[in-house]
Write a structure and sequence with these properties.
- There is one protein chain.
- By secondary structure, the protein is α/β, with parallel strands linked by helices.
- Helices cover 37% and strands 18% of the residues.
- The protein has 13 helices and 15 strands.
- It has a seven-stranded mixed sheet, sandwiched between helices.
- Bound molecules: pyridoxal-5'-phosphate.
Amino acid sequence: MDWPQLETKYYMPVFERMPLTIVKGKGVYVWDDEGRRYLDFVAGIAVNSLGHCHPQVVKAVTRQVKMLIHTSNLFYTVPQLQLGELLVNNSSMEKVFFCNSGAEAVEGAVKLARRYGHIKLGGAYEVITAMGSFHGRTLAMVAATGQPKFQKPYEPLPSGFVNVIYDDIRAITVATTEKTCAVLLEPIQGEGGVNIPHHDYLLQVRKWCDEKGILLILDEVQTGVGRCGSLFAYEQYGIEPDIVVLAKGLAGGVPIGAILSSLKASVFDRGEHGTTFGGNPLATSVGYATLKYIIDSNIPSHAKAMGMMLMDGLAKLKDEFGFITEIRGKGLLIAVEFSANIAKEIALMCLKNGLIVNNLKPNLIRLIPPLIVQPEHIEKALHILRLALKRESVNLS
Ligand SMILES: *Cc1c(COP(=O)(O)O)cnc(C)c1O
């Protein structure tokens, strides 16, 4: 079957897809429709935190689909409350709300901040966000996302967002007015190119928000759930946000989004927000199994150790290949930047040699393997990446 041809015929042409049809996955590996095996260092864009078809995830899915899949939020359901309790007990937050995706969760967090503005800040509604950020694809989140390429095709955009320079506290202080209700930031910009701010940036923003009485929302859709070497990335910056948003890696591949809030910021009242699918028994039971495993097996510190190993190996490649300009990352969210626009060529070369990487930008490759990746996988990935950088090919086993 020519799947790419079928895609061209039937699917809206929004995705730039790799020339690969994946039909099966196990652990850090996936297989294509011709039975070839690939080491997956993209993990569904940081979604398959425990790799593909992890036994705990499969067990939770199969157990729950036989028991109860969906009820709506007109009723109490058990997995939703268990996952909520687990998140609250392992964060600095007090309340949760579940939805179905990252964009929906961040947008819900913005609605929460607007309610806070209405109730506590004399009607303030504006949210300050960063250039180079990514917060999702709904119209409001496109306005929040400080990247013209996502915004231009859809103007005019919903109002109430101010995009300022990232990693610059002054840009935030200058943009803050009596209309501001919150600052919304990623602790590390994922889609924007793995941009890591100076270590004291978040602390400065936290202090500024406290001084002005406005909320700090952290979008940890990509950085959270252990990805950066701690359960939440914010733990590494010595701060606590008022609201934090999760999605991607939270349920091992099943769609889910979560808004976590402090007591102070938890101002939604009955009927003020909602969802049909969000927090349903299937998604939240798998979320519970995934998060419980991540916490009990101390996966964040494993991710930290594996990330350091990968970064060490990449640093050696940087010494060998002069056209690598920078290696940056935290935990298992890592970027390799080039002096020229060769990322696609390198990614395709890796693919040919059995390794999936993400050419996030023309000059940048992102590595976001499953958090359960082992040293031998990292060695293999570094070997294949080195061959690709040498523009050499090997035969797939
Ligand atoms: C991926 C991502 C989103 C959007 O998540 P979707 O599930 O695609 O809606 C939002 N914020 C950040 C930081 C992300 O990485």
